């Protein structure tokens, strides 16, 4: 019941992280500008990197946290003025004259598909999508609004903004309310006025503004008007920036004002997520049936036969017997290939597993609200750093079980292998976006903070966990290991390591691929993802699927007298990370319209880190499930 309640984001337990603010009529409501974003370049830029009109008092940056820096946010003041519950029309922002060079900046950004992102009362601006694919009975919205449009005659610039603010009235308080919606409809308008321009008259001299026939007062600009001329930016020239402000009452309460962003473009239909969960549950039920058949039927029969007193006839036929019991003296023999690397992989997998569990749970109950910009990124970073103690403990415990002596080197690898790989890729990609002048480039101070967290917190915790793990008693195996390894009989092709690994990753990937589409869309297509209740259920199903498929394939492997299960158990479920990378590649070429090579580097660089982390996490689950299975079955038999 709790998980079901968490899944419905419109009525879920919601902790937005900020207290609601009530505005009185006439009180100023600030509009701030954020980065310019494009799903085609994946490189955000500052709003004033383009020659937009600047506020008269100058540009002031809003203080940002580490997560906002990592996400490329750059929030600054603007010249747009709004007053609570005061409708205003055809307000003049600025009259500017652009050179050809400045105009070309706009033209390039428009052709690259850049959108403006504004913020009012901590709400990002939304805009209705108007194209043939999105014309449905329900209005569809997107984050931000386009700078302009490329047409046959040239490139138009959206220089008039229709700002529509929804507010929820406060019961018992007259002319007060809370902002629950922030929509911006951009229009391109070639403003006209009697020459020459008179600064004292301002917008009142604009004949292109619309007047009320009865009162003569300005009224909002209509969305469609064939008499209106477009503002082309080709070659530069004069541009007059104007805007309307309209306030509309709404029944939406303040706590639900993020619903429009969490269901943008209809991509987060609950039915799709439930379909994903049902699909994953069917996979789990299928695997559970196989595991139950193995445990109850085959294993129970084998254990009963092995434990009973053999007859004279059975002793004579003992040499012809085959099965998993015959490898009891070798099944817990340490892996031949790179046991230290295996322990490091398992330790890092435990670290990522703990990080994902804690982050998803806190997100599902609402603590990591999108209203707190950068909170999810900070949580991922801090929890990963703090879970370094789990990486050190797990790697040292397994390494000691393998009777390894170089635990200091193992700990160093656990502290630096995956974090070092991630930081190297991040540093290189950060340098690339810095060269391009993008706000996605993390400044030196934030980079230093990341390094300080790594060396000052994560590394000491890894060593602390390793010290604790290595001081504990060695794990006692259920059966003794012989000194001479048993010869493994020739295996059929369908029992080979490569085939088992490729097959093993299909079902775990099948349990998550639907949800993976939404996650990739939120990362690379500038959408919000906040259905963490669904994600928590899918994550649990993923772990169960990894455990069960590994147990099934491990049982078949042992029955064929192949006892090299350590690495195979890790790779069997871990290969789902390979399928995730293949799917992300397919997603890139079918859903992402990347224009530049830089975008390709960014996408595949970060997706490689994500998929490798997914490989470590799922592989760790498979290994621990397989070890538990082997421990149980070999403790249940009598060994001569």
Short description:
This protein has 640 residues and is α+β, with helices and mostly antiparallel strands. It contains 17 helices and 17 strands.
Chart the SSEs and their pairings.
Elements (H helix, E strand, L loop, with lengths): L1 H6 L15 E2 L3 E6 L32 H6 L4 E8 L4 E11 L1 H12 L3 E2 L1 E3 L2 E2 L1 E3 L12 E3 L1 E2 L1 E3 L4 E3 L2 E10 L6 E12 L22 E2 L6 E2 L17 E13 L9 H4 L7 H38 L4 H5 L22 H26 L10 H12 L1 H14 L5 H29 L8 H28 L25 H8 L1 H19 L7 H28 L6 H9 L1 H16 L5 H39 L5
Parallel strand pairs: 13-17
Antiparallel strand pairs: 1-14, 2-3, 2-6, 4-17, 5-10, 6-7, 8-9, 11-12, 13-14, 15-16
Tell me about this structure.
With 640 residues, the chain is α+β, with helices and mostly antiparallel strands. The protein has three domains: 23-257, no CATH class; 337-476, no CATH class; 503-640, no CATH class. The protein is built from 17 helices and 17 strands. It has helices at residues 2-7, 66-71, 100-111, 259-262, 270-307, 312-316, 339-364, 375-386, 388-401, 407-435, 444-471, 497-504, 506-524, 532-559, 566-574, 576-591, 597-635; strands spanning 23-24, 28-33, 76-83, 88-98, 115-116, 118-120, 123-124, 126-128, 141-143, 145-146, 148-150, 155-157, 160-169, 176-187, 210-211, 218-219, 237-249. The strands form six sheets. The protein has a five-stranded mixed β-sheet with strand order 1-14-13-17-4. It has a four-stranded antiparallel β-sheet with strand order 3-2-6-7, with no helix packed on it. The protein has a two-stranded antiparallel ribbon with strand order 5-10. Helix 7 (339-364) crosses helix 17, helix 9 (388-401) runs parallel beside helix 11 and helix 13 (506-524) packs parallel to helix 16 (576-591). The chain is elongated and about 105 Å long. It starts with a helix and ends in a 5-residue tail after the last helix.
């Amino acid at each position: 019941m709790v998980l079901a309640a968490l899944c419905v984001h419109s009525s879920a337990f919601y902790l937005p992280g900020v207290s609601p603010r009530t505005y009185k009529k006439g009180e100023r409501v600030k509009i701030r500008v954020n980065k310019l974003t494009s799903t085609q370049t994946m490189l955000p830029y500052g709003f004033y990197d383009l020659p937009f009109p600047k506020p008269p008092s100058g540009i002031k940056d809003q203080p940002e946290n580490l997560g906002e820096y990592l996400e490329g946010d750059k929030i600054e003041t603007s010249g747009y003025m709004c007053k609570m519950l005061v409708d205003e029309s055809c307000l003049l922002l600025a009259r500017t004259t652009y050179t050809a060079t400045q105009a070309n900046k706009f033209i390039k950004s428009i052709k690259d598909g850049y959108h403006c992102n504004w913020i009012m009362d901590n709400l990002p601006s939304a805009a209705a999508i108007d194209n043939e694919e999105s014309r449905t009975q329900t209005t569809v919205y997107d984050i931000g609004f386009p700078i302009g449009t490329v047409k046959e005659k040239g490139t138009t610039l959206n220089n008039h903004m229709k700002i529509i603010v929804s507010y929820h009235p406060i019961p018992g308080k007259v002319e007060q309310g809370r902002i629950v919606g922030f929509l911006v409809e951009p229009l391109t308008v070639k403003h006209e006025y009697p020459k020459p321009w008179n600064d004292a008259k301002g917008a009142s001299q604009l004949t292109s503004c619309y007047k009320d026939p009865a009162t003569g007062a300005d009224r909002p600009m209509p969305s469609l008007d064939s008499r209106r001329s477009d503002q082309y930016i080709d070659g530069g020239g004069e541009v007059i920036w104007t805007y309307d402000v309209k306030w509309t009452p709404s029944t939406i309460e303040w706590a639900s004002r993020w619903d429009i962003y969490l269901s943008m473009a209809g991509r987060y239909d609950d039915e799709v997520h439930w379909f994903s969960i049902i699909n994953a549950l069917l996979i789990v039920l299928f695997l559970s049936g196989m595991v139950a058949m193995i445990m109850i039927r085959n294993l129970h029969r084998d254990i009963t036969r092995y434990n009973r007193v053999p007859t004279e006839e059975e002793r004579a036929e003992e040499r012809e017997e085959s099965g998993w019991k015959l490898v009891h003296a070798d099944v817990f023999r340490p892996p031949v290939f790179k046991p230290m690397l295996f322990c490091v992989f398992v330790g890092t997998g435990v670290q990522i597993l703990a990080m994902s569990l804690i982050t998803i749970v806190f997100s599902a109950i609402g603590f990591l609200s999108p209203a707190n910009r950068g909170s999810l990124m900070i949580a991922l970073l801090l929890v990963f750093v703090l879970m370094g103690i789990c990486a050190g403990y797990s790697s040292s415990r397994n390494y000691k079980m393998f009777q390894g002596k170089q635990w200091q080197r193992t700990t160093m690898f656990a502290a630096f292998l995956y974090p070092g790989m991630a930081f190297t890729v991040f540093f290189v990609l950060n340098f690339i976006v810095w060269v391009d002048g993008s706000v996605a480039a993390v400044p030196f101070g934030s980079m230093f903070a990341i390094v300080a967290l790594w060396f000052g917190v994560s590394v000491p915790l890894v060593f602390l966990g390793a010290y604790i793990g290595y001081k504990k008693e060695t794990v006692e195996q259920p059966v003794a290991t012989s000194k001479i390894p048993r010869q493994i009989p020739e295996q059929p092709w369908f029992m080979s390591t490569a085939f088992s690994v490729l097959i093993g990753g299909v079902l775990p990937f099948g349990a998550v691929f639907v949800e993976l589409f939404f996650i990739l869309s939120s990362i690379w297509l500038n959408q919000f993802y906040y259905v963490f209740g669904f994600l928590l259920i899918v994550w649990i199903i993923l772990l169960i699927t990894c455990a069960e498929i590994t147990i099934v394939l491990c049982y078949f492997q042992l029955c064929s007298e192949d006892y090299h299960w350590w690495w195979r158990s890790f790779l069997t479920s871990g290969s789902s990370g390979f399928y995730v990378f293949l799917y992300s590649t397919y997603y890139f070429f079918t859903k992402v319209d990347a224009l530049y090579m830089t975008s390709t580097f960014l996408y595949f660089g970060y997706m490689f880190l994500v998929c490798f982390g997914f490989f470590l996490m799922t592989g760790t689950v498979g290994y621990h499930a397989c070890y538990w299975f082997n421990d149980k079955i070999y403790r249940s038999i009598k060994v001569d």
